[in-house]
């Protein structure tokens, strides 16, 4: 049995953690140390020191440190800030260390309201590029020295920075939309690709490379995603991924929905992950509210999350083989996925977006006969996986198309923010479910599948092995499902406990308010992070003591993964790029949010 | 027994076009069967009229030529594709007495020549479309089809050497004792692979490569012009199957059943094999396809010729 060692908050402050390193080496640079609800050490650093501090944290010998997230908080309308340094916009860097056990660090940088700017860290972590573009796009933060700061999620013609508090959030706050012919021309013109802007050279004085617009509507880009390819024959000289076509303002919506009514929105972020998206969100809210989730609800959550992992990985498997031209497997795998959905529908009442998790537990108890339903499936799938192994993984052409294609090293993976199966395919046995076991993962036995080459084939191998491990986890959940309530007995859960509402007026009033307005979550910041289907998915929530979130930050795995496409596709053929895209396992809604 | 030539031509043409149309439906049903789903089963008994419905739909579609395309060539390309395939059938003998020009003394060369011409249909379509995806498809088609033509021509030489004739009818008659698939198994395999590449079907459908190039060389085509490519592809499948049956499986010869039925059965089975290939295999990369051709198939077909020649010489009378 593999024993998981859950990190305790005390471990985080042990010597040689990033926190210790920062506090020891750069004491004068530290403006404040912020106590947090989620036990992630948080330090405030002044703008002119932050590059130095981050550079020291990412030295060659400690390079197994990832820029996990980079985001901004518009603090201008926040009332409950405690003793935090004065700031209009706060830059938040979230670092994650793989070398040490359980080490994370949040670095916050206060910025003024007037022309907020900060030094770029693209020279330290290449994946900071898109994050900084996003911060410019949505908050208007300028990064000095950034190679090419541009709008990344909104159209280039957008006016304003949507996630600022003074930007409108709803269509009803705007006059009716109209599109004149001139405007349409302007919008079209803005989409034209200008190679010079990206520093791309001409082939020679008289000849030019071919620029191929792959997407946003292309059969192999899995949604609306554009890659502009610079081609020499069929060989890719350079690639520019263009995202944002699927941007729906999920983070902004979080600021306009009650804590409870935002849950269904999360389902649609990684739309193949279903309740897997509810998971980090409700975990973060529960941390803020101090709610202990009962064991039965925990195990139901884990079981459903793993079923969704299976469903999502099956889609990956099928579409991956289809991307290299194999027509049939995708149908078999979608049939199996349908069986997963039968179970999920029986338990949740929905298929793809059940929104089944609740603050404090799950929506309802398991239906009669649920275990038999799952057991049939658990016996069915392994045999099918064996068949698929023969059909896809041992197929000579499939191997030739995927082995050695789109490979990256472990170091590259970490520099570019890769998590999930893509990271494990490089040989790092690292899984958040094991490293920081949330819910009841500490009670479950499972292996962390890894591979060694980090190429397309290995990424598929890891995905398939994870399906088998998920089956193992689900079986343990079925065998060991504890009895008890499926919802915490806490006043802030939704829907609130109503057993005593007819007995005393106080409970009745609370029930009424919590149902009509939604619960008031105590002010503070917390994140919930899980090992989602595609990598680490983190919700960073800030409550300002209201019925809605003050800031909802969704860190999705697919976002950094796509940023890496140019790196691994340079010099490859167009057909390789398709295999690479397929093997990355992304969902555009998960990228653009 | 002589059948009037206009009747033969008319019947062959009608059967061929009917068969190609039928195949558009049949392939989807067969794929459905292998992929645990139904396929088109709503129009007519078992969905067989789906082909008619598709035909009607495609005929009534706007016949659109993109403004940036090279008009003349754009229209010509699908016609070339269709024409070359249909002409090739002229020399395929259905039976000893039923063929348009089965006895043509350069029959096999004629087929190869027509296939060489067929490349133009695809390449010109890619060129005239004036679109990048179509151009890439056309480029792939040119490289792939021209390369595979080489192996195709070389692979059938063994058959010609054994039969001592380029006439398709003589080749079939030469197999009355033993089908050529036995002595010419290498050549047969190379011919078959080259045939798949010539008809650009999965796993060698790189000129179309929908996962990579959208629709490849016919990206810009719609309506009946697209329909022509579509039908020409299926007619091409029938042609390659018919050629395989003729060259290697003894043509119309077989016990008990009447000769036309034998020919039909052999061709039909091979068509199903083509569809099964499509259901089962992924698509190799462009350079892998080329490497397979030049590094494996070319030496194999040369070896086949050398071996056949050597054995024929050893057994030569006198």
TrEMBL record, chain B:
One of its GO terms (biological process) is aerobic respiration. Signal peptide: none annotated. GO terms for cellular component: plasma membrane. It comes from the Bacteria. NCBIfam families: PRK06076.1-1, PRK06076.1-2. NDH-1 shuttles electrons from NADH, via FMN and iron-sulfur (Fe-S) centers, to quinones in the respiratory chain. The immediate electron acceptor for the enzyme in this species is believed to be ubiquinone. Couples the redox reaction to proton translocation (for every two electrons transferred, four hydrogen ions are translocated across the cytoplasmic membrane), and thus conserves the redox energy in a proton gradient. This subunit may bind ubiquinone. NDH-1 is composed of 14 different subunits. Subunits NuoA, H, J, K, L, M, N constitute the membrane sector of the complex. HAMAP family: NDH1_NuoH. This is NADH-quinone oxidoreductase subunit H. It comes from Gluconacetobacter aggeris. The gene is nuoH.
């Amino acid at each position: 049995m593999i024993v998981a060692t859950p990190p305790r908050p005390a471990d985080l402050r042990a010597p040689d953690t990033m926190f210790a390193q920062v506090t020891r080496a750069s004491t004068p640079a530290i403006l404040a140390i912020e106590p947090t609800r989620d036990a992630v050490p948080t330090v405030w650093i002044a703008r002119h020191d932050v590059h130095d501090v981050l550079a020291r944290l990412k030295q060659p010998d400690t390079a197994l440190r990832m820029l996990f997230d980079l985001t901004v908080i518009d603090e201008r309308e926040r009332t409950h800030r405690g003793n935090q340094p004065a700031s209009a916009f706060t830059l938040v860097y979230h670092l994650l260390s793989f070398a040490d056990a359980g080490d994370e660090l949040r670095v916050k940088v206060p910025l003024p309201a007037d022309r907020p700017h900060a030094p770029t860290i693209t020279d330290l972590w290449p994946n900071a590029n898109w994050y900084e573009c996003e911060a410019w796009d949505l908050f208007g933060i300028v990064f000095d020295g950034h190679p090419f700061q541009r709008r990344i999620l909104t159209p280039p013609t957008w006016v304003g920075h949507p996630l600022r508090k003074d930007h409108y959030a709803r269509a009803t706050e705007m006059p009716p939309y109209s599109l004149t012919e001139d405007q349409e021309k302007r919008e079209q013109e803005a989409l034209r690709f200008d190679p010079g802007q990206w520093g791309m050279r001409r082939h020679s004085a008289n000849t030019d490379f071919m620029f191929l617009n792959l997407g946003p509507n292309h059969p192999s880009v899995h949604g609306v995603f554009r890659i502009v390819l610079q081609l020499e024959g069929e060989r890719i000289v350079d690639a520019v991924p263009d995202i944002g076509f699927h941007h729906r303002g999920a983070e902004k919506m979080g600021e306009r929905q009650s804590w409870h009514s935002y849950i269904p929105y999360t389902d649609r972020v990684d739309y193949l992950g279903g309740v897997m998206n509810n998971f980090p969100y409700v975990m973060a809210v529960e941390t803020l509210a101090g709610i202990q989730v009962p064991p039965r609800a925990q195990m139901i959550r884990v079981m459903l999350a793993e079923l969704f992992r299976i469903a999502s990985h099956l889609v990956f498997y099928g579409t991956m083989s289809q991307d290299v031209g194999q027509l049939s497997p995708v149908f078999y795998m979608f049939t199996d996925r349908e069986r997963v959905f039968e179970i999920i529908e029986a338990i949740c009442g929905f298929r793809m977006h059940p929104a089944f998790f609740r603050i404090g537990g799950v929506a309802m108890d398991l239906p009669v006969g649920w275990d038999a339903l799952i057991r049939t499936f658990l016996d069915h799938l392994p045999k099918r996986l064996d068949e698929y192994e023969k059909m896809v993984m041992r197929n000579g052409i499939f191997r030739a198309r995927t082995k050695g294609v789109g490979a990256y090293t472990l170091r590259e993976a970490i520099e570019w923010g890769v998590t999930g199966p893509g990271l494990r395919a490089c040989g790092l046995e690292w899984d958040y479910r094991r490293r920081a076991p949330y819910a009841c993962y500490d009670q479950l036995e499972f292996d962390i599948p890894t591979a060694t080459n980090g190429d397309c084939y290995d990424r598929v191998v890891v995905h398939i092995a994870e399906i088998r491990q998920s089956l193992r986890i689900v079986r343990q959940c079925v065998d060991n499902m504890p009895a008890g309530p499926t919802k915490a007995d806490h006043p802030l859960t939704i829907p609130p406990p109503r057993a005593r509402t007819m007995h005393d007026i106080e409970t009745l009033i609370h029930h009424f308010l919590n149902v009509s307005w939604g619960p008031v979550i105590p002010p503070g910041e917390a994140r919930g992070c899980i090992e989602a289907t595609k990598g680490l998915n983190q919700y960073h929530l800030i409550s300002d003591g209201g019925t809605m979130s003050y800031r909802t930050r969704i860190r999705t795995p697919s976002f950094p993964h796509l940023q890496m496409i140019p790196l691994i596709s340079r010099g490859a053929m167009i057909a390789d790029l398709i295999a690479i895209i397929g093997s990355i396992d992304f969902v555009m809604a998960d990228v653009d949010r | 027994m002589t059948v009037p030539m206009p009747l033969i031509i008319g019947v062959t043409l009608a059967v061929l076009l009917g068969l190609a149309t039928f195949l558009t439906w049949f392939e989807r049903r067969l794929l459905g069967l292998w992929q645990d789903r139904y396929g088109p089963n709503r129009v007519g008994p078992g969905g067989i009229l789906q082909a008619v419905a598709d035909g009607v739909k495609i005929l009534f579609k706007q016949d659109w030529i993109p403004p940036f395309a090279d008009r003349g060539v754009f229209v010509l390309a699908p016609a070339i594709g269709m024409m070359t395939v249909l002409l090739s059938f002229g020399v395929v003998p259905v039976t000893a007495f039923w063929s348009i020009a089965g006895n043509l003394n350069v029959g096999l060369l004629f087929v190869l020549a027509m296939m060489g011409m067929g490349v133009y249909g695809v390449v010109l379509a890619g060129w005239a479309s004036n679109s990048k995806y179509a151009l890439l498809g056309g480029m792939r088609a040119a490289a792939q089809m021209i390369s595979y033509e080489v192996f195709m021509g070389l692979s059938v030489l063994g058959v010609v050497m054994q039969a001592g004739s380029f006439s398709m009818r003589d080749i079939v008659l030469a197999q009355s004792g033993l089908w050529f698939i036995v002595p010419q198994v290498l050549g047969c395999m190379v011919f078959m692979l080259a045939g798949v590449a010539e008809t650009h079907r999965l796993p060698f459908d790189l000129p179309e490569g929908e996962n990579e190039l959208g629709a490849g060389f016919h990206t810009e085509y719609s309506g009946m012009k697209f329909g022509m490519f579509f039908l020409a592809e299926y007619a091409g499948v029938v042609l390659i199957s018919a050629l395989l049956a003729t060259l290697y499986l003894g043509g119309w010869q077989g016990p008990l059943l009447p000769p036309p039925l034998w020919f039909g059965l052999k061709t039909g089975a091979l068509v199903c094999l083509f569809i099964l290939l499509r259901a089962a295999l992924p698509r190799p990369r462009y350079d892998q396809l080329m490497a397979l051709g030049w590094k494996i198939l070319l030496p194999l077909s040369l070896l086949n010729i050398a071996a056949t020649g050597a054995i024929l010489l050893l057994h030569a009378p006198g």
